[in-house]
Amino acid sequence: MEPNSAQKWRVAAAKVMAARPATPMLTAVAMAGLIGAVGFGFSHQYKHPATERSATFNPGTVLDNVEASVNAAVNGATALEPLLTQPSTSMQTLAPASLVKTLAVGRGDTLMKLLAKAGADSTESALAIEAMRGLYNPKKLQLGQEITLKFERADGDALQLAALNVQDSVERTVTVTRGDAGFQAQEIVRELDKSHVRSAGTITSSLYESALDAGIPMPVLSEMIRLFSYDVDFQREVQKGDGFEVFYEQFAGEDGKPVKAGAIQSAAMMLSGQEIRYYRYAPPGEEADYFTARGMSVRKALLRTPIDGARLSSGFGMRGHPVLGFSRMHRGVDFAAAAGTPIQAAGDGTVETAGWSGGYGNYVRVRHNGQYATAYGHMSRIAVKNGQRVRQGQIIGYVGATGLATGPHLHYETIYNGGQINPLSIRLPTGRKLEGKEFATFQRNIDAIERQIAATPTKTWLAQK
Ligand SMILES: [Zn+2]
Predict the structure, then answer these.
(1) Quick check: 447 pLDDT over 80?
(2) 193-300+435-455 has which CATH code?
(3) Burial classification of residue 220, based on how many CB atoms lie within 10 Å of its CB (0-12 exposed, 13-18 middle, 19 or more buried)
(4) Distance, CA 349 to ligand 1 centroid (Å)?
């Protein structure tokens, strides 16, 4: 999260999960919590580990618009008054009425451990975490993620846990606040502005590098590569001078800064002058998918290349074996890629082998149906278990050089009726085709996308080096 961006958050939706209705006070408490998430840097009065930032709550630093909306939302809610009307000189006093701490999740940290580190009572912590359970799974905490805690002075002298904030995603924060009926959780959804971006470029090296040069965000690029990998053999079909275009959603905060990319609406590659273009479409009652202008789903039973941005380093057929030294049949294809590159399941299926297998090293075999299976060798690490169901595109392991391998690469096999076949030469069974009324609806949909594309200026045409 960017510092200060939380100050500009709008509370667009606040869902209260506890018995109490959504009162203005809860909204205000949540906003106070959000303000706390900014982590004002007045930490000179307290000593904390380097990962903590703490501050007394100082309304003077709150942006006017936030303060105004808090005040409007409070509507005389007494619980917050001491906090909001506290003069800024309270920074000077040694016994603040409240204290905000921001902590970063470290290795091995659980929410419970973080709360303990911040000095929260363990019973209180357990209650607060329990209260948020329906809205946030504490196991989702990620390394480096920040949580914000607010402590308030109880009747006696001790500071007690008053609020806990966990940012779940760029647009969603879960807040737990202490109320009369114990801890209550709510989610705050930040309202983001959706716009569209049209990016295009010419391939100078690989689609991967040229698209990155064109400023296409990584998640969009990965999705684009995944889409085209059903139809395009990146190794043999993509040449210098080929082009690409992608039209995708972008979400920005109130300051207009993009915070995340959304779905691709249309993507195209111009290969040797021929355009391959896909459109996003959600058939009624189904998940959105991508189709050609003729209504053919791009999804195939198997991916041609189960790895992003890899280079085909050895094809299928007879060759001198690089490790054994004599000629033998190479029953798969090799994709050179950096160690640790994720390997995807080529299709939906069940893992029928996951473990060490002689020269294959760490090896996974996925059974897709009665006829087809795919196998993946030399992995540095396996990410699935025997018998596990996997979906197409799911990460099943990572590129390595285990077994008989001279360097990091993926050895990939397609097995048809028990024997290995060349994965690059098989005619893959295609997915569904839109027809009749459905096709008419789809066509109206792509007309709308085309009009939007035409109305959006292209961000980059030529990759800038
Ligand atoms: Zn191989």
Answers:
(1) yes
(2) 3.10.450.350
(3) buried
(4) 22
